[in-house]
Amino acid sequence: MCGIIGYVGRESVVPILLAGLQRLEYRGYDSAGIAIQHHGCLEIRRSEGKLSNLEAVLNNGDFVEGRTGIGHTRWATHGRPSEQNAHPHRSGDLVLVHNGIIENFLVLRHRLESEGYRFESETDTEVIAHLLSSAVKRGGRLDEAVRQVAHDLHGSYAIAVMSLTEPGRIVVSRSGCPLVIGLNGTGAFLASDVTPLLAHTREVVYLEDGDIGILEESEIHILDSDGQSKTIPAETIHWDAEAAEKGGYPNFMMKEIHEQPQVIMDTLRGRFDYETGEADLPDLSMTKEELLSAKRFWIVACGTSWHAGLVGKYLFEEMVRRPIQVDIGSEFRYREPMIQQGDVFIAISQSGETADTLAAAREAKRRGARVLAIVNAVGSTLAREADGVIYTRCGPEISVASTKAFTGQVIALYLLVLHVGRVNDVLSAEEGRWWLDHFLMLPGHVEHILKQESAIESIANQYAHMNNFLYLGRGINYPIALEGALKLKEISYIHAEGYAAGEMKHGPIALIDKEMPVVVLSPKDRLYEKSVSNLMEVRARSAPVIAFVSEGDHALDKVADHVFAIPDVHPLLTPILFTVGLQLLAYHIAIQRGLDVDRPRNLAKSVTVE
Ligand code: AGP
Known about the structure:
35% of the residues lie in helices and 23% in strands. The strands form five sheets. Strands 3-2-4-1-10-9-11-14 form an eight-stranded antiparallel sheet, with helices on one face. It is globular, with a radius of gyration of 25 Å. The mean pLDDT is 93. The structure holds 2-deoxy-2-amino glucitol-6-phosphate.
């Protein structure tokens, strides 16, 4: 997720762009840049790292005057963070900024290179710049070129482009990514969301997919995808800028919980071939032979990422019958792990900077393993040191408690396991298509759960005063019991334990009484009856029981104190759905206790020390 901004009007544009980019840094901050139209020239300034680096460039004598400009703050998806990969990107007389993912950029890049275009970056964005340049050269206005090029682009985009051939004009368009425009007495504005515009106007227009906007100093024209003029009523925004950064949500954690359907779609996007039922993971950098010859597979991670790794264990074993060893980073690095040459070592990390996970990956590499990173932060240390990468495409996860990153990690594992299964011929093309069909239904299932948030909030409010919780799960949902307990611990400061349900009778049952709510995950799977037995055991000891079940299962309605149903899906697809419910439970308990869910005490977003 990146942030784009633009202005054309009577004011000096650089201060407007920089202030706007500051408001958009929460959308990505690994590099930034601006482009200004100035006396018939295009001035471009870009820098790696935080926006302050760009500000330093502009404030140390390299300032540019101008009244028309665009800007960008980047969360890298294609191409590591660098000045060269930073936006804006230029082609001939035009320059553009882009938020989104162009899935077919490699095919388009090869076509453009064969037409003689030279690429300066590793990004998918530069492809759009050259396509537009090529279209403009064939004659026609910039807005017509945008409309033509849109037909070539597969994926998602929000773009702002300007050209020396059309001074005082910015053309914008979107498909699958947000873009909002506005007008005040000084000029016209564009941005990825309303946050930067609120300093200038509260009357904004949200463009729709396929729309093209033509921004000039005193007017904005909107065209539909057929090039016909259209009118979209302006909306009045009542949020303040801080609320707008959170998309209108009260905090980043709730925003990120609700971003999970989009994260699933973005992480899946462009990474499978439905015809063959195969995953398409070009950044894996592992040949079929390397995967087939690997004697052992390993997963190592910490915290929530370790819980995702434990889910991966069940996926490897049950989807493709592949044994795999899963370890906590801080344990793995100090054992004498039996890593062999050619083993596949999967390191999972949202930040890509967790010291224990990095050290484990380095140790594995030293012993001859091929290291694959499942990571969110492009260009992070783990991403750079790994042999192969699967990015989770979650955008920045601001809240310290990991929510959408976990979901992205599990989706990445689904794709990886599918890939291994198809490479090993353990899964047929038809089975591969079946799994892809069901992966693609997950966003809708998560939306369905999010729509029932109030039911979970009601449960949370009844138990927010409790001091101890027990979470029970079996099979692939044992890690989810661990994750649910961790989420509660880290944002509500309530002591909570996650336990394998079958293990509860070997000791923890001594803790059970009416003061210890027990959350039981009981999907309709082959372990259902066992889970119900565990539920009855805790019920018999007066514990309040909160049961998470599959839709259509009413057998526990009279047994549990509270029942929350998730969509009835294949058991291996339940982890994300249960997790979203448990995220909401932990969130609302913490809110009820008046705590700061985004910045819990004692915690850091990235534990870069031992
Ligand atoms: C999860 O809510 C915590 N913030 C923490 O457990 C986190 O998952 C862990 O520190 C690992 O971080 P990473 O994914 O960035 O490696």
